[in-house]
Design a protein that fits this description.
transferase; Thymidylate kinase; P-loop_NTPase; ATP-binding; 5 strands
Length: about 220
Amino acid sequence: MTAQESTITPGMFITLEGIEGAGKSSAIPVLAAFCEAQGLSVERTREPGGGHLGEALRSIFLNPELALDVEAELLLLYAGRRDHWLNRIQPALTDGKIVLCDRYEDSTYAYQSGGRGFPQERIAELARWAGITRAPDLTFWFDVSPELGAARIRARRPDRLEQEQTPFFTKARAVFAQRRAAEPQRIIRIDASAPMDQVHAALEQALAPRLRKHFS
């Protein structure tokens, strides 16, 4: 897949990003319903996961009983992401669908570079090697403090990443902010500390003009 080939698909690739407890997953059905109300077809997916290989790797990646170093994390992520792109995301975009993906490349930079301290240039090299050259058309960054995010997930059994401590998520949040500053046209910050109905209204307000422009 070349960079040129990755830009000619008629669909729209939308990702949702943020630290744990930001509210991304609960927003996916809301965005899907909003898009479908405009007569558009939607493919909902997630990372890690999104395909047979990705879902199998997800169970390894998030297993709280396993100790993985950052290199192992990245190799798992990009094996799954390549399969996800080739067999799920790209075909849906070629069919003209909107792909709504819970996490993608930005989370890798935030968690494995920000949280773990792995060099960003090496992540970029691995992404190129894996053929991940297509950036999302639009990314919603659900911005929330690590403390509030932790409070929201306290009631459930945490997975391996959710067990990380506040400094990890503080550094991850900083990388999300850096990437947003570098790509303000692609990445829209959503105040995820607001009540859910306000968050969902902000998402729809931001998405509507992008849909009109992309599918006009």
